[in-house]
Structures are given as C-alpha cells and as structure tokens.
Amino acid sequence: MAEAPGRLIRLHAALLGLALAALAPGTAGAAPERPPVDRPALAAALCGPPAVQGQAAEALIRAAADAETADLAWAGNILRVLTERRLACTDTGAVILDRPGAAEGADAATGASRPAAGGRVPVLGLRQRAQVETALGVVALLSARDPEARGAGLAAIERRAAGVPEAVLARAETAEADPGLKRAIMQVMQAAALSSPDPARRIGAIRAVAEAPSGAALSRLRALEADPAYGADPAFRAALDSGISRVGRAIAVGDGLAVLYNALSFASILFMAAAGLAIIFGLMGVINLAQGEFIMIGAYATYGVQELFRRLAPGAIDLYLIAAIPVAFLAAALVGIAVEALILRHLYRRPLMSLLATWAVSLFLVNGVRVALGTQNLQFRMPPYVSGGLPLYADFIVTWNRLFAIGFAAGTLALTLLILRATPLGLDIRAVTQNRDMAGCLGIRTRRVDRLAFGFGSGLAGLAGVALCPIYSVNPGMGATFIVDSFMVVVLGGVGTVLGTLVAAIGIGGANVAIEPLYGAVAAKVIVLVGIILFIQRRPEGLFPARRRR
Amino acid sequence: MVRVTRRGFIGTAAALAAPAIVRPAWAADTVKLGCLFSSSGTMANIEGRLNYVVRMAADAINAKGGVNGRQIEVVTSDPASDWPLYAQIGRQMLQQEKVAALFGCWTSVSRKSVLPVVEQNDGLLYYPLHFEGDENSKNVVYVNSPPASSVLPAVDYLMGPDGVSAKRFFMIGSDYVWPRTINKQLKGYWKAKGIPETAWREEYVPFGFSNFQTLVNQVRSFASQPGGQPIVVLTVVGSSIPDFLREFANQGIQATDVPILGLDMVEADLEGLDTAKLVGHLNCWAYLQAAKGERNQAFLSAWADYVKAKNVPFSADTVIDPMVSAYDSVHLWALAAAKAGTFDVPMVRQAFPGLSFDDPSGYTLKMEAENNYVSRGVFIGSVNEKRGFDVLWQSPDAPKPVPFSPYG
Description:
The complex is a heterodimer. Chain A is mostly helical.
C-alpha cells in the first residue's frame, strides 16, 4: 500500500473515536439527532487494526440496548460479512461483497455498487472473533425473527455473559414472545448477577448458576469462596456451599455418564468391525486379513451413494446415509463372495495360505482404490443427525455421530441374531460351524453355505463402513486400523459366537475408556493387550467357547 | 527345443541387466537427484505430492539450461512410510545411483534413520519439514524452521494481547520424537517465563489413534477450570488430525473457547471435514497458500499447470508448506552447485554461506556459515470455511534460525 503506516493508524484512531462517540449510549444527550449506531463509523472501524475492530464490536454490544432494530440488523449483517471474509476495505471505505474474492460489491454505508479491486480483506484474530461472535449473538437475540436464531444468539451470549450489559438482556426479555426463551434469558440475567452489590440478587445468581451445572459453573462458584461475604454473611455462605455441592454432584454424575457413553460407543465400533469376522473366522477358520478393506469398501460405497444423491436428488441428500445401508452391504458382500469364489475356495484346508491370500487381497484392494480414486480423505456431507451434539446433563454431551454408531451396532446385532437364529441360512451356518462333515453328510451343501456366510460376514463389514463414515476419515488405508482390534475382539469373545463378540467388544472398549484417563491412551492399549494375553492363556477358547463336535 | 540351464539363465539375466548398470556411463550429461518420499502407507497422502514438486522444480531449472551445463534427472522411490526403508533406499541412491543430493523425509523418525547413512557416505539430504531442531549435521540442509522460528513465535502470539492472552496449555501429541521434543521445549519456555507447572497438561496417543472422545472430554474439563484462557497445542500427525478436529467440533468447543494450535496441520488434513465449526483454529508454517505476492501466484499457477500437464494424482489447487520447501530445496541445491562449479558434496557445502533465494512465501531465504539451517519467514494461519487457512499474522522478516533450543 502506498500510504504511510503512521498516517493510517492516525486515521483509524480518529475513526475509532468517532465510532465510540457515536456508539456510546451516554452521548445521546449531547447530540440527540445522532442514532446509537453510526453506520459509516462502524463500517470504518471494522476495517481498522484488530484492536479497533474489537472495540467497535464491544461498543456495539454496549449500545445495542438503545439501538433501532433496523440498525441492529444492519450491524449484524456487516459483522457476518466480516466473519465470512466478504468485507473488502478499500481506500474509500468498506465494500460488502456477494462472495469472497468478488471484484465489486455494495458500499457498506450507502449500499451503492462500487468496485472492490485492491481492497484488503481483513482476517479476524481470535480475540476479535470472540467479540464479534458475542456482538452477533446480541444482535440475533434482539432482532432475529426466528426464535431458533434468537436461542442461538442467547447461547453465544452465555459463552461470554460477563461482557454483555444487563440492559441488553432486559430489553430482550421484555420483547421475547417465546415463553421458554424468556425463561432462559431470565436465567442468564440471574446468573450474570453473581457480582451484584445486592446480597439477595447474588444468592439468586448462585441458585441460577447451580441450576445449570457444568465445570465452568463450578469454577465460577468456587471463585466466590474468596469473597468477603463468604465469611461475613451466613445466608450467602449456606447458599454458596449448597450450590457448590449440588454442582459437584451433578458433575460427578455427568462424568460417570460420559464414561459409560464413551465405553459404549467405542464398544459399538469394535463390535461392528468384528461381527463379520466372527462369522467368517468361526465358520471357516479363515483368518481374513482383508476384513478391514471390506469396511473401507462399505465406506466408499456410502460415498458413491452420496454422490448419486448429489446428482439425482439433491433435495433428499441428507438421507444418503440411510440409503447407503443396503448398497454398502451388497457391495462388500459381492466383493467378499468374489474373493471366496476366486481365491479362498481353493485354500480351505490350508489356513496359512488363506491368511497370506487374504493379506494379498487386502493389499490389492487398498492399492486398487488408491490408484483409481486417489489417497485423499473423502469429503462427506454430514447431515444434522450425525453432526454436533446435545449437552444432556452437566458436562455430558451426547454426540450424534457416536449415537448413530451405537444405534447402528444394535441394529447389526439384531439383524445378525435374526439371520443366524431364524432363517434356513442361519440354521445351515450353525450346523456347518458345529460339525462340517456331519452337516455335509446330512445333505447341506457346505460349499454354498461357506460362500453365503463369507458374503454375509463381508456385508456386515460393509455396514460398519457406513456407520464409521461420520466418525473417522475415509481413505484407502482406513481398514488397517481396525484389523488388529477386531481380531482381539473375536479371539477374546470365543470363535464363532456373536454374543461372545458383543461381550468382548464391550469389555475391551470399556477397559480402554476406563484406563485412558488414568494412564493415557498409549498405556491403555498396552494394559488391555497384556490383559488379553493373560486371559487367553487361561482360557484359550475365549469367553464363550462354541460347542463343537469334532 | 531350447534347453534352459541354470548357468545360461544367469548369463542371459546378466546381459539383460547390463544396461541398467552401464547407464550412468552414457548419461554423463545429466546429474541425478534422489527423492525419499512415500507414495504408500500412512504418509502417502501428504508426502506423495513432494515427489512431483521436486520434478517440477528440476524441470524449471532444466528449461533454463540445467546446472553446470548438465540436465537434472530426478530419481523417485517409495519408502512406504516404513522408517528403516528410508535409510535403505537412501543408501542405494547414494551408492548405486550416485545421486548428487537427496530430498526427503517428513517425520523426524525417518530423518533420524537416514541421518547415519548420509553421514557415512558424505551425502546431502535436504529436509523440507519444520521440526524439533536440536540437530546440526553437516550432511543435512534443514530447509524449514526449527521451533525457535516457528512454534515459539506462534505460542508467543497466542500468549500475547493480539492473540488470546493464553495462560494454560493442553498438549496432545502422537507418541514419538517430534511431539515429545517440541513439548519438552515448550515446557522449558513456559518455565523460563515463570508459568507454574499446574498450567499445563501433556497427553500422548499411539500413531494412527482415532478414538478421541475421552481426550476431548478432558480438554473440556481442563478448560472449565479457573486460571485463565486455555489453548490446545496439537502435535498429533497423520489421520489423527482430522479425527481429533471432528470430535472437538462435535463436542461443541469453538475456536473462540479453546483454540487449537495444530503444529502439523496443513490444508490436506482438512479434506473431508466440515470446517464451518472449526473456523479460527491455528497453525504455523513458513509458507501458507494464502501468502500475498506475485511469486506465490506464479508458483500456484505453475503447480496447477504441472498437475494438468503431467496428470498428477493430487489436488491442483492445494499447496502446502512442505511442497514449497521441497521446491526451495532444489533451487538452493542448484544455486550452491552452480556457485561451486561442481557437484562434489564438500565443494557444494562450502558454497552454502551467503546463498539467498526469493521463494514463493514472499521472504528471501538465506544461508549462513554457522550452520546448515535456512532462515524462513513465519506465518500463523487461521482455518476458514473453505478448508483452507487465512494468514492471521506474519513476521516482518525472516528470523535467524536457532538450531539448539535453550529451553530443553
């Protein structure tokens, strides 16, 4: 830029002064004709250096209680434009672009069309981003039409409630039509009064904070133990003590729930990765090292379904994960059946050979996908039902992608048990697993059963691929991470029993999650592995040895 | 019928193999450079692209007449993300292919395994990654920055008023030499600043770890404790990076609550993620794709053209720091060889002091007599919605590299 930096800073300082004078509510009396939000000054300040941007956002928060709704909406728009990097700062003022990098846009203050060439597009620093987020929250709470947007605004304010004047919340509370939201605003107002001079309000604030227990709430309450009132005022002391113990209890319960949830979600991932293997290994004694790659095929099939939806039915794209379930199952099952028919069929009496052959298949599949589709992580659109989470109780958050996996694992378990227990194919599989030769003598076509069971086991791996898409990165090498874990589960559970696999998955997942906070993730893996070795030495057949007649 | 005897077979095989052995003799008008970047295994996605960048740089130099009147021939390999294989292939390249210099390695483990090989054979290895420092071999050119000119400025920025005035630190790393050394130096740095030990926590995970639920729970409870603004210093590598980021976003933590400083995080790690919820997290490198300047524009378009022309299996519009550093490496080597007038390693090494190269980042790279480090600029990037990084801060000039950290 040709301009001298010194001059620029002076210019910004002058603009800031203007903006602050304009935004501060106290100055309204001195210049009654000036509105609380001075649009050109705010636009200019947002083009200033980081400190000026932050001060402008804070000034807007302070002035928001007296501002006109139209001004708030305008300020909200320009702040959003700034966060989206669509605000270009030219020598003659700020320009709002329709999309990042556009050559021309609308003047921020007047709305007239102006070229933006050569303009600087400011990047928000973290501190300023926080201030702008809070300002956007205030604007949304005061001016958004949609109650959901107002709720989101309130959530943004709650993150940094200390910087928001009470008048803003009071105005929002008076104007709020939605009763639930009105109550929520009331609660934030009460909680914000922790440092109020009025003792009754402080006690009310302690109750309000204890009402929504979290680690942060505990820290806020603990900080009050150093307050002089704690020693002087018995009512205050009692309220604080009971608040702290209440929050502490809630956090303990929440943490316990979190451990259970983490264990269950890890167990469900292990179970899905291992279920197909349990059938293949149990039935045919084939150590299938390509099982991880069947998971990968399931995930790639899911991607294919997503792309089809994108082309053919973009409106229903959020349903692609559901639609992918049969596709992924069939894709992996077909590949499995092909592998069985072309390679494994010839190697049934030679376990070492079949192990090497499946390893070769796994290398072939990994490199085939790598050459055909590239090594990069696939880009999945995450529908709302698998992204984000719901804070359930204290610090316990239910993340949707994990819940999806848990539900999926339960579905897989039910399906597997149903097929094994209630269909002719399941009867045949169980017969062949228990005594292959006798089953053959009784007229069961054991080779056909093998092929179908291999396909079924591969298909289950494909299903695991669908459930893992929202949790892990999908790339050609993803299968390798699952193979060791799934063998541990199958061997520990006892070869060939689905229920044993389930119990082993829960055991290994739970042990990992329980040990990890104490000794770290590396030690957790080692301890679990040593535990499995010791267990297998005692009971080589695993937890639930299948009844076999040999 | 032709009888195949064992002796006859060996003779035929030797005759067929002969051209490969004699080839260097009749290829005397070329000089060979070797690449040690994996095209398979865990590092394939990010390391693989560096092979092509080295070729692209060599092509550009060849188009201008080569070095010392000879054309550059690039020899590539695939060490398959298997650390000992880097050493083995490096030895082959130095002894059999007689390469004039090696360009390679991403992880510090692989560099450490190649180090004895280049020292024994008096070869040259150009290493394009920022790393933990504490090493100064006369046979390695450290083209990227040691912590003193990458990690520490970034941590300083976050601790300062322009950043978030960070007071507490949660370090999460993969369990190997780079994260552990970096974290040791950071702890020493904080101790020197008078920050108490209770202000940080350190956790390590195995390579390829992906189940970050419990760790993110721990980050949340760490963040809710009193004592000031917390940040996460992330030194996990490979596929653990996107998996961690995904869990972090899903548990509802935003960059404005607890920012992540991802020391190995590049654009390629954001592929496949919804970055709208990750906006504002940081990384620090000696180059970012969003760097201003015509040199960067020229490099970006040269890469895009190269990808199109040679059908390279990587994204045409993603350029990451190690790619630019690999490109710089080839040019720095060519400058040194031209200055020395020979490809003889000791002579080339003597030519290092005083070299300078204007690279795409906009800074001028310089080498001095003290060590084999290169002074580079410092960028701090901020994740944006489009799976890229915006330049949040950059150093006014390229700081002088400090190989050995005083903090650990």
